[in-house]
Amino acid sequence: TPGPRVRAVRLSEDRNTNKLEACRAYARMVNNKDFSCLEPWLHEDFSYSSQWVMEEMEGRNRFAEYIQAKLETWKKEPGFLRAQIAYTNQFGAGPCVVIEQDHEDNLIATLLITMKEDRIASMSMCGVPSPFECRRTGEFPS
After folding, report:
1. Considering only CA atoms, which of 106, 86, 81 is closest in space to residue 97?
2. Which of 8, 30, 54, 118 has its Cα between 20 and 30 A from that of 14?
3. What is the pLDDT along the chain (142 residues), one digit of tens a residue?
4. Total-model pTM
């Protein structure tokens, strides 16, 4: 008699190539301190949230003002901030971005992305899932 039938399960990281490219665009923006790397990816109905900021930002323009100011600050600060492509199966997220500050063992946040019509509908900067729990790839888009 044949053994039990085994069905291959694809991990969420295998399914969404557009989400992976969107994560790369965000990481490229952080690594180059250049908003133009991410801007074309943002959906018209874009929103941004962070576990460390009380207010959710609605709209591309509001986020653009916020992130461009942060990028200018990051350019002036000593040390480094880098973004790496990672994967998590928590919340069914799949591709995500892990942020490092000053050295590779100082993982400070995970960025989760939700897509709509091949554009980024929302981004959430969070500590859950922990960047330490994500599978880091060693890919730092530049």
Report:
1. 86
2. 30
3. 444 443 333 344 446 799 999 999 999 999 999 999 999 999 999 999 999 888 899 999 999 999 999 999 999 988 889 999 999 999 889 999 999 999 888 999 999 999 999 999 999 999 999 999 999 999 999 9
4. 0.87
Q: Judging by DSSP bridges, how do beta strands 42-50 and 119-126 pair with one another? A: parallel
Strands (E), 4-75: 42-50, 53-58
Phi, psi of 15 (to 5 degrees): -95, -35
Spatial distance between the Cα atoms of 52 and 36, rounded to a whole number of angstroms: 24
Helix (H) or strand (E) holding 138: none
CA distance 104 to 74: 17
The encoded tokens of residue 120 equal 């980024």
3-state helix, strand, coil split of the chain in percent (to 5) is: 30, 40, 30
